[in-house]
Amino acid sequence: MTSTAPDPARVARRRRKHERQAVVFGLLLTFLVLAGLGALAIYTDTIEAPFAEPIHTPVTAVTAMRPACLPESEDGTLPLPYDEVRVRIYNAADDRFALAGANEEVLSERGFDVRDSGDFSRSVDGLSEIRYGANGIAAAYTLAAQFSDIELILDDRNGGVVDLVVGSEWVEPLPVEEVPLAADQPLQNRPGCVPLDQLTPVAREYGLGRDPQEEAPPEG
Q1: What digits encode the pLDDT tens for the residues 65-93?
Q2: Does any domain span residue 21?
Q3: Where is each LytR/CpsA/Psr regulator C-terminal domain found (predicted)?
Q4: The whole model's pTM is what?
Q5: Is residue 85 a contact partner of residue 142, using CB atoms and an 8 Å limit?
Q6: In what order do the strands lie in the sheet with 86-91?
Q7: 3-class DSSP state for residue 55?
């Protein structure tokens, strides 16, 4: 019985094919390993991403629509006496209602230092807002406790005066006996609050008739 010897040319072709496959799979594996290592290094900030946009959003870009947390202190932050809360009240809802005046009356009766009232420069379609600066967090929290639902918005104002901007989904101030404040009890951080140094304030807005380009009115 005769045996047929392998065709040398055929054997050589198979060997070259296997070698090419080994090279291709080796390159693919190397690429995947390098890509994985690169992604891990970018995610952990070991190297900078070569893209226009970051892969993850830095915490300093948190919107000012989140309330600022109260300043940290050993004994906590007490609510301000009402007569130390300086507030301006602006209507940003339907002009048919004298909302700014109604809130001014209630808050003035409670002892708040109402400095101004009138219409806001634009409409606010949503909850009423308390707009405050970095020096007005305790004042904003003290005022916010008068309402069952309200937004706190940090802006770039100076001083401690806060603005109550009455929106289209406004709610009335709580009855005095339902306000969750006690003079000797520290204020509680609002849900979802963010440390002040991680918030980016929005540009301050003014009541109708005030020129935003002018220097802010005195807050003393």
Answers
A1: 799 999 998 889 999 999 999 999 999 99
A2: yes
A3: 84-170
A4: 0.69
A5: yes
A6: 113-119, 86-91, 162-166, 129-132, 151-154
A7: coil
